[in-house]
Give the backbone structure.
Amino acid sequence: MELRFVAMSEDQAKWLAYQWEYEGAYAFYHTDVEKLGLHAFIDVGKSSARQYAVYKDEDMVGFLGIKPKKDVAEIGLGMKPDYIGKGFGRSFLQNCLSFIKHNFEEIMAAKLFVAADNKRAIHVSEECGFEKRSPHKREIKGNFYDFIEMEYRFNRE
């Protein structure tokens, strides 16, 4: 799957925040826009935008957030609910890693946090080269959830 990454606009952030609804076990991923605000998704007017809308052709299929700290970037990503569980995860994550590698040369590693019970995401992350690091608890909408920190090391040789 060939994907295109563009700095996220306010309209794209609104569409993602208000239109994407995850169901079942993934419902807690649904964004609480009133609590977070759209600034969680966009860096309006900044050329150094770190929030990206991800497109396949003309369809916005996901998002990628990159928070660099020295040579490690914490990343947050998500796929459009219509794509969940349909075999796109590995390709989506590989494309995100390739984008980071080629556009953020100072980044030597990427880390992400996956819900501990999201076995599919953990499996896909491991298939793409991530390794489990440490467990964490995170509060989402007043509830605490178990997450696993995972890390990917870029080959910069």
